[in-house]
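Box 3.1. Reading complex inputs
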Amino acid sequence: MLLQGTDPQILTQPLLRFDMKSSVLDWLGIILKRDLIIAFRRSSTYITPLVFFLIVITFFPLALGPQDSLLSSLAPGVIWIAALLASLLAVESIFSEDFRDGSLDDFFVSLEPSFILVFAKVMIHWLITGLPILIASSLAAIILYLPLESFVPMILSLLLGTSFMSLLGALGAALSLGKSAILSAIIVLPFSIPTLLMGTSVVTFSLNNQDYSGFLMIMGAMLAIGIPLLCLLTVEALLLNYD
Amino acid sequence: MLPNLKVENLSCVRSEKAIFKNLNFEVLPGQNIEIIGSNGSGKTTLLRTLLGLINKEEGIINWLDENNNFNEYRSFDCFYQGHQMGIKNMLTVFENLKLTHNAKGMNVEDINKCLERVGLNKTNEMASDLSVGQKKRISIARWLLKDFKIYFIDEPFTALDDRASDLIKEIINELNQKGSSFVITGHRSSNINATLIEI
């Protein structure tokens, strides 16, 4: 659905024209700066997923005992499930505050492309959940006795996978706006299965000294398709909340 | 003088109940429209329908473009302020103005002038520490960031003391002089110079 009051040319022209391009970048910069300031002042937004991720990881050696072969064979699945669940913790908050305080209305009434708003929100979600998880995953790998040569594939798979999760999370958050917080996680989880399978396969294949590049390519392709497609679907889902 | 916005036979239906029917009005530069109605009469729905946030049921909403033609797509920026004012509690008074797309390219002095005009001097105070009335003043300061052709303001006089109400009337008058128009809603007439529409 295109906003009735918005010129459709806005969607097709801007990226090619320098003035509009700079306007779009300004717009992106303002949203990023504003939301990052708010996130850093409200530290729970980035600390909670990080602490949750590390707690889940440390529970496994405590429950199973310090058997390095068992832990390292379980590590790909454990790290990935913990990362997936941790990234979903902050999903509900992607749009809820803007919706409650009326900022979202302002975004849609402006003539700037709404796609940029969603893309900025996805980037912020990744910066406050995906990035800390990515950094903490090295510690998780040490705790779970993951061999050093699997570190790079693990980081690469998490980089692509958590970014895709943020995109999916934005769509889930938009569909469940104003409803129960758990609903967005329930919407997102089934769609995260392919990412989970690909991500764990990358780490498992690297553990077995097999070629894992194919899985990374598929994850990259999912992300490349997901950015335009899921951002546009999220815009549509957000607009449903006004009708 | 051509109107910036022309509304013809606008109707909106929700759950098979007509919220408003066959509304006709024009928004001329420098002139105001005041939409009066009781709670639930559809004032907010009307503003959102005009701005394209809600699909209209019937009728025509035409916007003037740069070639003086009317078409259904808006090509100029409008200001919309709903019941919620878009104020971020975790930002300072200054940041609440600076970090909006309307403040693009504005320097610190320009923004401080807008805040001074509405009587807000403690610009580094967190918005969470302000009263509802003071937050409303931040939202009024946002009107001054840029000259918009039309301001759509939902119940601007709610939760304000007499001084703040007078300030709003003054600012509306000033912006009218510059050619801006206001479409505002309320439960009763606010005594600003406006065409009244009851829904």
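In summary: Residues 38-240 of chain A form one domain.
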